[in-house]
Hints:
Layout: E1 2-8, H1 15-28, E2 33-39, H2 46-54, E3 59-61, H3 72-80, E4 85-89, H4 93-100, E5 107-112, H5 123-134, E6 138-141, H6 144-153, E7 161-163, H7 170-175, E8 191-196, H8 205-214, E9 219-224, H9 232-241, E10 248-252, H10 257-263, E11 266-269, H11 278-286, E12 290-293, H12 298-302, E13 307-309, H13 314-326, H14 328-342, H15 347-361
Parallel strand pairs: 1-2, 1-4, 2-3, 4-5, 5-6, 6-7, 8-9, 8-11, 9-10, 11-12, 12-13
Amino acid sequence: MMKILHVIDSLAVGGAEKLVLDTLPLYNSVDGVTADVALLDASESIFLKKLKTQNCCRIYELSSGNLYNPMLIFKLVPIIRKYDIIHVHLFPAQYFAVIANLFSWKKIIFTEHNSFNRRMDNPFFKLLEKMIYKLYNKIICISPEVKEVMKNGLKINENKLITIENGININDVKNAGVSFRKEFGYTEEDVIIIMVAKFRQQKDHETLVKSIAQLPDKYKLLLVGDGKKERYDEIINLVEKLKIKDRTIFTGERGDVFSLYKMANIAVLSSNWEGFGLVAAEAMASGTPLIASNVPGLSEVVSGGGILFEKGNVDDLTQKISELTDDNVLYNETSRKGQKKAQKYDISRLVEQTLLLYRSLK
C-alpha cells in the first residue's frame, strides 16, 4: 500500500485546487494507493463541498480562514508521519509542509504551478525560495516554461525537476450541459465573452474590461471567479468608470463552469503570467473559441488550439474578438482546433505520470 498526502492552501476555486479535486478520486481508484488531503484553510467552498460529496478520501481541515498561521506547521507534523509521500501545492503550504517534514523526513514533492511569483523579485525571499526548494525530493513543473524558470531563474538542480503537464477531465467537459442564456438576462443576439479567473495580480482583467468597452453594446462580459479578495473592487470600479456595468456580470465562484463556457460565444484568458492555464484547456475542450495572452506557459497550451494576443494590448484583443465574431470560418476552425488540442491534456496522462513518480520515490 502506498499512502499519499496532498497538502494545499485551500480548495478555493483555482487551477491548482481544481487539479487536486479532480485527481484525488483517480488516485484512490488505483489498487494499492491511498491519497488524502490536508487543507491549511478549510473555509467553505464549491470545490470542498464537491470533494466531500465524493467521499473518496480523508480531508484534514487544519483551520478556517487562518491560512498564514505558522502554528499550522505543528498541526501538520503528526499527519505527515502517517504517509509515505507528501505532495505539496501552492504557497504558504510550500513552506509549512516542508518545514513540518523536517520532523519526519518523508519523501516530499512540490508541484510548481506558476512561472513567476512576487517573492522572486525580492532578494531575501529569492534566497529563501532556493533553500526551501532544496528540501524537496522532486519538483513537478506543470510546463516546460516553468521548468526553465526553476532551472535558470532559481538555479534548481535539474535532477530535481520533472515536467508533468496539467490535465483536465475531458469526459466531464463533454458531458456538461449548456447553461440557459435567459437565466442571465442574455438574448440569442448577445455575444457573450467569458473569463474564468480569480481577481488577483496574476490575472489581467483590466485589458479585457477595456476591450469590451470598445466593442458594441451587443458584447456582454461574464466574469467568473472568487470576487472577495485582492483586486475585485478595482475591477468593479473600472467597469463602472467605463460605463459597461449594464453589460457585465460578476458571478462569483461557480460549479458549472463547463456549462457556462458552452453558453458563451468566446472565452478569454487575459493574464500577466501563467504556469500553465488550466482554464484555457477547459475552455478549448468545451468547444468555445479561446483568446489568451501570449505569455510563457499559457502560450504553449493555447498555440495551435486558440488565438493569442499581445499581453496588455487592448486594441489587439479587441480586434481578435471582432475577427472571431465576424468570420464564421475562423470561428468554427478555432473551435475545432481547440477541442483537438485539449485532448493532449487529458487528466489520465497526468495521473499515470505522477503515479510513476510516486513509485520511483517510495
